UniProtKB/TrEMBL annotation:
PANTHER family: MULTIDRUG RESISTANCE PROTEIN MDTH, RESISTANCE PROTEIN MDTM, PUTATIVE-RELATED-RELATED. Residues 1-378 form the Major facilitator superfamily (MFS) profile domain. This is Major facilitator superfamily (MFS) profile domain-containing protein. It is a multi-pass membrane protein.
Amino acid sequence: MLKSTVLVAGPTMVVLIPMAAAPAMPAMATHFAAGGDGALFAQMVMTIPAVLLILAAPLAGILSERIGRRAVMLLGFAVFVLAGSAGLFVDSPTALIVSRLLLGAAGGAIQTSSLSLVGDYPSGGARERLLGFMVAGSCVMAVAALTVGGHMVDSWGWRAPFALYLGGIPVFILALFSIKPRASQVSREHNLFAPVRLLWPVYLLAAIFTVGMFMPSIQGPFLLDQRGVHSAEIQGSVAAASAVVAAISAFCYGFLIRVISPRRLLMLTAACFGVGAIGMAKLSGATSIGAASALMGIGSGFVEAACATIILARIPEEMRARALGLLLSAIFFGQFLNPWVVAPLRGRFGIEGAFVWIGGGFLVLSLAIALGMVLRESSTSAVRQAHGAPESL
């Protein structure tokens, strides 16, 4: 029970890496406006940890094979607390960026070791439920970070939410006593990127979906600010609407996966992202925009768990740590890409137009996934009927 708690708490704390900074972005943009584009710098503070996480997650998988997942997890939590809370006192923009990069490396270590340990649970129930609970816990933390963080910004300024990273201390202590050392499993395949040969479509989809997943939290505050909603607490609450619904859908994942394949859940996710993003652009008022944000949350709860399910079903056990590390790299690469994908759209069409273009792209992706499933089912239906095989992941 304690081990399961740590495995849920690990990814839950990692979600603080971007979300604790999200409510502070407008205030941070104002604070650093004198040095150039304050809005872009604020977005980079939120998303720059993804750079190191992209690199650190697969390396953490290799390191887990060498020194053990427990050691990697504990080291990750120690750096997480120190680097995360640095925003409380650093003054230099460069120092702030460096601390955020270290925070990303810590997040990669925590998330990779947690997902790898989940792979030890039996499939067909326990594993999938735990994957869903991990995402659900992350979504609940996102809600808390966005709402509480917004209140902290309004009350004490943009630095205040960085205190949330100190919550990693009790999780570190719990992991110290509940995660037992285990003999390492070194894969015969030494190529770090060997899983890419089998799983590159999954990694590509994960990155694309993450760009859409972070539209409410990264771009939503600027959309609301343009609409005249300047309160960080209200902006955080609108973004939190997506996370609340994502927590519910993720909690249900372990039950839904018994009757709906991961591919169909990803098709549903793309449709929710498309309709939700266009709704955020076209609707007026914080409540209506929050409802559209909540619609996007339906799909957000499925992305990581569905992709992890596909990977765990396809990859040998001794390569799971690095394969899941690469999944995390893809997810955080999508998070890092969000400002760079949206910036040119925002510059040409405005923030509302950017939401419309992103939403349209996901509607096209939903149709493409549906078409791909139809073609796949058509080409394999004869084989399935002959052998009575269940639908493949």
